[in-house]
Amino acid sequence: MLSRRTSLRTAVAVLGAGTVLALTMSSPAFAVEGDFQMPSTPNCDAVQKIEPRLYTDGQYHDFQAIDPTRTNGHCEFLIWDSSNGRPVYDSISGSQSPWIYDGPGHSVRTEIIDHLGGKLSWGIYN
What does the mean pLDDT of the chain come to? Predict the structure, then answer.
């Protein structure tokens, strides 16, 4: 019984050390990756996509895209860069946007404007 308990402790210690190492070697704590359903408006829906991609400096940085999932022709889909206070992508298309750089010096988030329903929906800042 003692050897089983010892082996369990060793396994837990190894897993814990591996988790710490993986978290230390990964992206900074404030970075978020994944696909996120944005809050719906009466007529428009979209998914905010965030993923690391290779940038021109040879490093991996976050990029964002907005992928409309429901539109009635009165929806506007934007990606804002708060570092310059302007949209870097603005479309009424139902197609996914290009991937927009969201690395150091930039704070990017997505937005839906429902012109028919008079509602706004914001994605998360990354």
Answer: 82
pLDDT in tens, 18-34: 444 343 343 443 567 89
**Looking at the domain assignment, is residue 3 inside a domain?**
no
CA distances from 60 to 13, 22, 109 (A): 30, 16, 19
44 within some domain: yes
Considering the entire predicted model, what is its pTM? 0.72
